[in-house]
Amino acid sequence: MGGSGSKVKGAWPFSGSGDAGTDGNEQSLARLKGSRNATPFVFTRRSSLYYDEDGDLAHEFYEETVVTKNGRKRSKLKRIQKNLIPQGMVKLDHPCIHVDFPIVLCEE
């Protein structure tokens, strides 16, 4: 549980000290121009969708196979895991706040 946080040890991306952009988070965090501080907003995310050989886009792909057992024909779905291309980075409709943002935004 809690696997959505960053895996960087010792560098806090919002503190402004140290080099926080070396761990690959510069793609998901918008950086201010001329400054080393990162904004707390995330504008892109990695998509969980894949393209298959035909160009179809989905989370999972299956093919129907016919199995003959004891003279009876049964159809089964076999999951396809080869020749799938990830969709890549997707722009979010609305910016989200990064999970490592260290400030409480609202306290009731």
Could you please describe the fold and organization of this structure?
With 108 residues, this protein is mostly beta strands. The protein is 0% helix and 42% strand. It has no helices and 8 strands. The strands form 3 sheets. The protein has a 3-stranded antiparallel beta sheet with strand order 1-2-8, with no helix packed on it. Strands 4-3-7 form a 3-stranded antiparallel beta sheet, with no helix packed on it. It has a two-stranded antiparallel ribbon with strand order 5-6. β5 (61-69) and β6 form a beta hairpin. It is elongated and about 65 Å long. The two termini are 26 Å apart.
Concise synopsis of the structure shown:
InterPro entries: FUS1. This protein has 108 residues and is mostly beta strands.
